[in-house]
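P.,

For your records, the input lines for the assembly:
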Amino acid sequence: MRALDLAELALAAAPAGDGGLALVRRERSLVLRYARSRPTQATAIDDLTIELAVLREGHVGRASTNALDLDSLAACGRSAAAAAEAAARAGGVGTFPGFPAAGKARGHDGHDPETAALHPERGGAALAAAFAAAERSGLEAHGIWTAAEEETAVASSAGASLGDRITDAFMKVVCIAPGGRSGYAAATAVAARDLDAPVLAERAARKAEVQGEPASLDPGEYPVVLEAHAVGWLMELLGVTAFNGLAHAEGRGALTGRLGTRVVAACVNLADSPRFPGTLPRAFDAEGTPKAPRPLLEDGVARAVVYDTHSAALAGEASTGHALAPGGSPGGPLPTNLVLAGGGAKDEAELSRPIERGVYVTRLWYANVVRPHESLVTAVTRDGTFLIEDGEITRPLLDLRLTDSVLGILARTQALTGSTALTSDGEFYGRRFAMGTVAPALRASAVRFTGSAARV
Amino acid sequence: MDAAARRVEYADARHVAARAERISVRNGELAQLDLDAESGIGIRVRVGGAWGFAATRDESRGGAEAALERALAVAEAQPSADGAKLAPEAPAAGAWESEVREDPFGVPMADKLALLTAAEAALREGSGVTVSRASFFAWRTEKLFASTEGALCEQRVTECGGGLSATAVADGETQVRSWPASHGGHVAQAGFEHFRELALPERAPHVAEEAVALLAAPPCPAGRTTLVLAGEQLGLQVHESIGHAVELDRVLGREASYAGTSFVPADGIGSLHIGSPRLNVTADATSLGGLGSYRWDDEGVEGQAVPIVRDGVLRGFLSSRETAAELSLGRSAGCMRAEGFTRQPIVRMTNVNLEPGDAGSLEDLLESTGRGILIETNRSWSIDDQRLQFQFEGEAAWEIEDGARRRLLKNPSYAGVTPVFWGSLDALCSDADWRLISLLDCGKGEPGQVMRVSHGSAPARFRDVEVGVA
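Structure tokens returned:
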């Protein structure tokens, strides 16, 4: 049964309330993990979640199931309705204005039938290629290869009847040298055939092979070149701290009171672009609101945040199609297709050239928000951190702890590469929802580091 | 398993039925009321040294057989591997369920909402709170495990709890206070009685007052000082810097591309000094009420209390049957856990507990401290991929002056390097102050798995720690 048919069936089985919405998310996925140039775990998933949301006097009750029989769907609907009714009795009239009216979602080219077949042999061949490339350099390969098909559908009493299918593929290679130095490369795409395992492995190997005893830097501010993957992490953190419409409406956002003002360097242009070439497209959000491009930072000026129905009502705005759950997720809405526009630099080498002494960062790890109002975050560098001296990478660096404001880093951004990459860390918690950020590499005149990796 | 036995070196199957309730009241209205249920089968096979795993929601015989075929196909498609044998284990047999006095799923929704509404309203009684929130969580997980070695066992686990948070906003600044902990509060392997005992409505006014007071509090000064950690922050410190560091899959390099490796070497048992002689850590899957407690892990190994650190020296690992065999440990420590039926088990923490000391109560500890700062509730955390260099921020701190808790401080942070930090441990409170805290969102694995764990600890003191770093 198609996801949309199932959504319609589930909606029909639910008590009407003051409105209802059925969201179906189906996942078929395959993940192959490897370490030390050997396969370690392989996971094939075929599952779906039917989520029913029922509105009653401004309160939304939700229930979910993965059972498809009519009795189970009806029971799920009754649970959602009973939850909404209990909330209405306990709390008076709520503020949720109702599920959005039917909209027309635009199509996209984010589905590849060959990838959707999920042939494990393709993944196995990618692993073998990565192992061979690492071995040629005397290194061990670690990482994952994964591909999936996601089907999403929304049917609502407000008339929404939408279906969407996407595929995604991701491969990550970390090469580790006998001495412990590591290098990273990864790729994300709509089609699995676009993941070039040997190229990724060779790129990761080159970083692990950089010779020299790792230098240590004292805490402080240094000029930095961030590769696209590191930039992608920072943009995702900015999505949480600056563009969340709920936090913004409540005065907690990093852009509260700053829309329309210059907040970062003029060379920075960031948008949420659900059909941008190279992204993982999405047609609509979890409430059935069609996705549309939304400029967030234009020539350094803060232009907008993103909303779901609930946060939009609080702010007196309209939903921008960024709901993560019907009725809104507790944490608020988030951008899911961030695109940071590239600049004029040819590559990372050109970005490095003006730096007398600075830091080259391949990727960030274990990032966490410290003070959202300031977009202050902390993270550690990993798998390819190097010292830049007189415009060239000269030697490896011990990994560093970055603690800085993302808006601050973007305010100190001097140049960006023209080429961009779809970056992702391939983290698939819960029901798979593949997303990534399109980002260039960039140079910032100063980034604050508060510590350096230790050795035992 | 009968169908699998003829075609594999080993196979196991888990049928998991999971149920969850997540309710929160926020700013005077319902913010979340989610009632979730899912069930299915996960089948894991080992062929030619490679693992394959397939999950399906189709619980029919045909569905299970199709999942087995898929698991075999996935295992066979991978490059060949020379995996270690599995450490021996007697087949698990029997049934077990966690202790519950009042079934949280049997309590009327109106009663839950009444408690939450009262607690959330109490957060808004004073002025200055921008976001008030009271939350309730309950999970029930029923598992049936079988293996080609003849294991067949059932478990039923119920978890329940919740918490409060108040957010104050003014002049471009946001401060949050939570109780009894941040990131969801306190959840235990228990029934609704645990949620009632949290007494959220009674605690709410104080939580709100502290959130507002933080806006005007002085910032935590930068420098080196004595640090007293308690409650959630100490539990998280144990979790991040010791618990993850002794996961044997990390130690053996199997998590290098994602969670990372470990500063702990595979041959470190008996020789690696992780901390001061006062440091004693036990991974205990039998702690009453702990979210890491069970009768059998998800590959049928009995839950155990395993010494991890004794007198500051490494004594054990968190392990699986495969990793234990690779290190010739004789027996798995029983630490394989999986999130639901769609994920295969990986090495996870049980209740990794810091054993108490002899320093008396928290007040006794502060009295003997002289000068320093106290942090109890976490706001932000980060640690490197070897579990060495860490940086934590708390929601609030208190200045310790002349042996007593004095001024409230905002934006407290501290940083350190794991063995150096634990080496500076010079006092631990006594058994009477030892408590379990819960962490609800421990992420690991690819595809990602979220696990709920608990950590027991009594307040502890660390000398010469770098604070005010963020």
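Two observations worth noting. Chain A touches chain B through 96 residues (CB under 8 Å). The longest strand of chain A covers residues 38-56.

Regards
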